[in-house]
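ok so I'm stuck.
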Amino acid sequence: MHKLAALCVRRPVFATMLILALVVVGGFSYFSLGVDLTPKVDIPTVSIIVVNPGATAEEIETDITKRIEDAVNTISDLDEVRSTSVQGLSTVIVSFTLEKNGDVGAQEVRDKVASTVADLPETAEAPVIQKFDPDAQPILQLVVSSTRPLREVTEIADKQIKQRLENVKGVGEIRLVGGLKREIRVWVDPERMRAYGLSITDVANALRQQNLELPAGSVTQGANELTVRTLGRLADPAQFNEIAVATRGPYPVKLRDIGHAEDSQEEATTASRLNGEPSVTLIVSKQSGTNAVATADLVKARMKELQQTLPKDLCLRGALSTPISRPLSSSGGSR
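replied:
not stuck anymore, here's the structure
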């Protein structure tokens, strides 16, 4: 230490340049320094989410959760398997020991779950497997509120606001909470169905088969090759009433003979409120490894741009509280 001090006294120019070099490196590091609440760590935890609309918590536990647990229990370096089964939703959390590589564990979970997909109910959606990444957590909540119907507010938030914010630099994912999306509901009369000898499965199959868009090959015309596509998807809800469910003798039994279809909205499973009024919350998550403060500033700047293009009666602001999500019934387990 004394030798360094003596060197700096004898070489003042060297000492000055050394200090300036440290200052320049520190300045560059300051502007590129990431800002976050927690350090970036690799936690070997994987979540498996399977959605089966309409199924009870008991059916979810027996037909989905139990089978997934049995499949992932054979993976090496397993520490804990926790599961939660609620109406229409199965969540399985797989935790490995700290020595396990998170990416390797996630891939092993995907392989095991892929082998059980054929055993899951036909109405269940494809499993969503995600590796837990604390560096890609939500950083901002935006609330969209208006005096308009909540379904219309949801449409604006999903088609206009969400799509414009998703291409902001550093944004990884945006989820909607509290909205009501459009849904075509079909109501049937059990007495009429019994009279025609029909079941609800017949109605579901008819709706599925007659509301499709399928590729139909191609047509060659000289030097041109044209793609043929069958336009079988219904655009008007009233057209669902004309779908033929079955044939009884020479007469087709249409949907309007046993019930009717209506343009409605999905059943609310989450709720978001601003000052006591229904609203739609957008939860913004950043990409792993990006600067949380810089990403939030870019999102807020884009919000100011969107305010000029949105309807005057629509309000877009930062969220003041965490959205509320309450399942109707649940059963959980830990293994």
